[in-house]
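Please complete every field before forwarding. Incomplete forms are returned to the sender.

SECTION A: IDENTIFIERS
Entry label: holo-157
Bound molecule: flavin mononucleotide
Molecule representation: SMILES string

SECTION B: INPUTS
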Amino acid sequence: MKPVVIFYSFSGSTRRVAEILARRLGAPAVEVKTREPIRHPYGVGFMNRIRERTPEIVVDADLDAFDTFYIGGPTWFWTVTPPLITLLRTRSFAGKTVVPFCTNDSQPGDFLARFAELCPDADVKPGFQVQRVRRLSDEEIESITKRTWEPRDSGLP
Ligand SMILES: Cc1cc2nc3c(=O)[nH]c(=O)nc-3n(C[C@H](O)[C@H](O)[C@H](O)COP(=O)(O)O)c2cc1C
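SECTION C: PREDICTED COMPLEX
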């Protein structure tokens, strides 16, 4: 298995989870960046402008070199963060294993469930969420990345 952790993070929480997970797996952590910075991330006006959008992204890695993709970001408006929607719509994960993960304050919405639809040709695992990252120690975060795999016999570390 050749894993990689790919993440988008607006304010640092998902970056922290991604880096702890990557360290545990001995895998690289690769950031998804937007070509244009995303601004004004709160409020209904922003929600209407950003939800379901596919901003241009930059991913500085050769994705073909990996077979297991842990892909995570913050929940935004109860669903997948727009830069990750772009990633999943514009890159092929056919035949690969994909493990989604998200951070959020309490309401993940359909973030994890949508991965099956967004990368239909991949073997998509149920994944995991980390809530209220700022309140957690590194050890607590690491243990969440371990204990929430489903099904337990997925063969993933
Ligand atoms: C625009 C926006 C929308 C959000 N929507 C949700 C949400 O629907 N449910 C939730 O629990 N948290 C929501 N949050 C909180 C973030 O998901 C949470 O703080 C996350 O851990 C931040 O990760 P980051 O620091 O990697 O960007 C939202 C935050 C922002 C900025």
